[in-house]
Write a structure and sequence with these properties.
This protein is mainly alpha-helical and 210 residues long. The chain has two domains: 60 residues, Arc Repressor Mutant, subunit A (Orthogonal Bundle), CATH 1.10.10.60; 136 residues, Orthogonal Bundle (Tetracycline Repressor, domain 2), CATH 1.10.357.10. 73% of the residues lie in helices and 0% in strands. The protein contains eight helices and no strands. Helix 1 crosses helix 4, helix 5 runs antiparallel to helix 6 and helix 7 packs antiparallel against helix 8. It is elongated and about 60 Å long. It starts with a helix and ends with a helix. About 5% of the residues have low confidence.
């Protein structure tokens, strides 16, 4: 018999309960932040999670800490999804790879549309890709990925090279407008078709199509 087994089980159980509570808090916070923005009240988040306010503060020291962790976790999930799509399509033509990346973003948006809209509102796209750092925003990370993909498209002859510095900003700007303005209250099922139309419009203007 393992002399430590009886003491290890309660510890693991407490860890799992704490992790489950933290995830429930993040899910509740996502809903409340999506409605009320970054200044949402901790009492509202605790109520949505079905826990006492004191329990909420046991997990997150203040609202800013909760906001930062939620942004980090949802941004990381999005970037993993984008990177997986890019990796799977890395040997595909530019149009197919761009379509796969946009589809990955739309899937994340469909699952987290309210919070992603708030995050994009408080984390606007930059005008050009910047150097990587641990403090980069979601918009900067996305811009870098689109920039690398666009340069690959130009190298393949799928895009006119003279606009290569502008294309990433155009793509993200169009995507943001379509999803967060044109489709703000539309069913998620409409997003894929509208983004496909957006992609077609971009390629007709920037691509070397006859």
């Amino acid at each position: 018999m393992n002399p430590h087994s009886s003491s290890e089980k309660p510890v693991r159980l407490r860890e799992r309960l704490r992790e489950a509570t933290a995830e429930a808090i993040l899910e509740a916070a996502e809903e409340v932040f999506a409605t009320d923005g970054p200044r949402a009240r901790m009492e509202s988040i605790a109520g949505r999670a079905g826990i006492a306010v004191g329990t909420l503060y046991n997990h997150f020291s203040d609202r800013e800490a909760l906001w930062r962790e939620l942004c980090r976790s949802r941004r990381e999930a999005l970037l993993v999804r984008l990177d997986e799509a890019l990796e799977l399509s890395r040997n595909e033509p530019f149009e197919d790879a761009l379509r796969a990346m946009l589809a990955a973003f739309v899937a994340h948006w469909a699952a987290h549309r309210g919070f992603v809209a708030v995050l994009m509102e408080h984390d606007p796209p930059t005008s050009s890709p910047g150097p990587r750092s641990k403090n980069r925003t979601m918009a900067q990370e996305m811009l870098d990925r689109v920039d690398a993909l666009v340069r690959r498209g130009a190298a393949q002859g799928a895009l006119r090279p003279e606009g290569v510095d502008l294309y990433p900003v155009l793509i993200l700007g169009m995507l943001r407008s379509v999803l967060f303005h044109h489709l703000e209250k539309a069913p998620s099922s409409a997003a894929a078709a509208e983004v496909e139309r957006m992609l077609d419009l971009f390629l007709r203007g920037a691509g070397q199509r006859s």
